[in-house]
């Protein structure tokens, strides 16, 4: 065997070992994170959120594709929204999968809110996989100056 042939065989073996190492690493990462290899873990763990500042309201939009309305829970305080959504299938254990790339998971997300919101009049709707929470701003009334007489004793 010539030196070039030996180097070529070595390079082939080395390349194959590196590929197998990457595959094993991907499998371990997928097992540890319990997420499919082709799904970015941040999408599963943290749903995308937009917070819009409109004239009289603040609107929080949260992407929750594949979630049923009944599996969404919203708790709101003056400083945050706490969102819990359940992606689980209760009958999953009874099913025999030949392949499983879809995931089951419960997500929890705390979203900070700006000051000056009237949380008692919050409305929420869930449509097309997007949860929209609308919170009115507290209207500060700047009335006219009031004059009143103060009696001096």
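Sequence proposed for the structure above (153 residues):
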């Amino acid at each position: 065997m010539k030196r070039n042939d030996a180097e070529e065989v070595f390079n082939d073996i080395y390349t194959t070992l590196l590929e197998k190492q990457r595959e094993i690493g991907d499998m371990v990462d997928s097992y540890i994170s319990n997420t499919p290899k082709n799904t970015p873990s941040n999408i599963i763990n943290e749903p995308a959120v937009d917070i819009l500042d409109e004239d009289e309201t603040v609107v929080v939009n949260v992407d929750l594709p594949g979630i049923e309305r009944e599996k969404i829970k919203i708790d709101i305080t003056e400083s945050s929204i706490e969102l819990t959504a359940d992606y689980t299938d209760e009958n999953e254990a009874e099913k025999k999968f030949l392949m499983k790339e879809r995931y089951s998971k419960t997500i929890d997300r705390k979203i900070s809110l700006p000051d000056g919101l009237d949380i008692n009049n919050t409305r929420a709707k869930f449509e097309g996989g997007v949860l929209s929470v609308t919170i009115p701003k507290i209207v500060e009334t700047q009335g006219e100056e009031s004059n009143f007489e103060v009696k001096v004793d």
